[in-house]
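Entry 14. Ran structure prediction on the chain below.
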Amino acid sequence: SKLFTVDSNYFKLRAKAEFDERLFTMTSIIQINQGQATILARKFGGVQ
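Output, structure tokens:
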């Protein structure tokens, strides 16, 4: 059984990673078309 259904082909992914006591961030806009993922935009937030 499905827990939820998604009707969109566009997604925003926000990722954070900590390395050597520094926080790196990245945001990606992803399009799904016929089972293939394409990155439409990517922004690096730098070090915090």
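The chain has one domain: 10-47. Will compare against last week's run tomorrow.
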